[in-house]
Automatic annotation (TrEMBL):
Residues of the Glycosyltransferase 2-like domain: 12-165
Organism the protein comes from: Gloeothece verrucosa (strain PCC 7822) (Cyanothece sp. (strain PCC 7822))
Pfam families listed in its UniProt record: Glycos_transf_2
Keyword annotations from UniProtKB, A to Z: Plasmid, Transferase
Protein name, UniProt field: Glycosyl transferase family 2
Length: 292
């Protein structure tokens, strides 16, 4: 899997895992078929009990780093992986994010000839079985046009996702990932890079399939953590009216999407409940004291 010839720049693929036995083998197989090979692949596992570690150990070309669940934070586990990596460009990939084609790595690293590019993130396509709410959210967030983000004062240019990204190691050395944030460590890093005068690129051709059909409780917990992270970054809070309005507009947009795309009609009943748990996580986080 690892490239035998010298390439420029050198690349490391870094994957975080916990109980990803169902997916990690497929992800590694897809990486093995890329048009250009990475110089190394590192897996940082935080306490898998489902056989993930055993699957990774079967592949002699993968470097495995194991940490305890108690040691894990999103930013902390990435920093551990970066310290062990040798690549000039570190590609971050979720264990259950499957590159769309064999040109994923090539399309991700092509922008780094520009020394002002700190990071690149790619498109995330909904899985074929994605729920309509999840599918609409992905299609809304990840468009088909390339974006060059340079303005630290424009929140629309702060987007970045470590589920599918590439980072210049020298830029990470200037600012490591925040190890305290419960989520959004990727956005915090990107905002810092913009403030330092670097660029962030959104490259839609570096696409992966990555989405989650989560239980209502998991939806609530994920949104709660993300909003806590965002509030820590921006030191802003929103009121109840904003959350209620957001729920209503999201439900209406979901209804239109379901009807337009001829999805199964039972989703018209499920959507308001799904968005209610989403909004409840938003609301609870907005009034939480767990903001650093």
């Amino acid at each position: 899997m690892v490239n035998d010839i010298c390439t420029s720049p050198t690349t490391t693929i870094l994957i975080r895992t916990k109980n990803e036995a169902k997916y990690i083998g497929k992800t590694l197989d897809i990486l093995n078929n890329q048009s250009i090979k990475p110089n190394e692949i590192i897996v940082v596992d935080s306490g898998s009990t489902d056989g993930t570690v055993e699957i990774v150990k079967q592949r002699s070309d993968i470097k495995l780093i194991q940490i305890s669940p108690e040691e894990f934070t999103f930013g902390g586990s990435l920093n551990i992986g970066f310290k062990a990596a040798t690549g000039e460009i570190i590609l971050l990939l979720s264990a259950h994010a499957f590159p769309y084609d064999q040109h994923w790595l090539q399309n991700m690293v092509k922008h780094f000839d520009d020394q002002k590019v700190a990071g690149v993130y790619g498109k995330q396509l909904p899985q074929p079985d994605a729920w309509p709410t999840v599918e609409r959210d992905h299609l809304m967030c990840y468009k088909d046009e390339i974006r060059i983000q340079t303005d630290p004062d424009n929140i629309k240019e702060h987007s970045f996702s470590n589920a599918n990204s590439a980072i210049r190691r020298l830029c990470w050395e200037k600012h490591n990932f925040d190890e305290i944030l419960p989520a959004c460590e990727d956005r915090e890093w990107a905002v810092t890079m913009l403030k330092m005068g670097y660029k962030i690129i959104y490259e839609p051709s570096a696409a992966v399939y990555h989405s989650h059909n989560e239980s209502l409780l998991k939806v609530y917990r994920r949104i709660y953590k993300e909003i806590i992270g965002l509030q820590s970054i921006y030191q802003l809070r929103v009121g109840r009216f904003y959350v209620i309005k957001n729920w209503a507009t999201s439900v209406l947009a979901d209804f239109c999407f379901i009807v337009k795309n001829k999805k199964r009609k039972f989703w018209l009943l499920r959507v308001p409940i799904y968005r209610l748990f989403w909004s409840y996580g938003f609301l609870r986080a907005s009034f939480s004291k767990n903001v650093k």
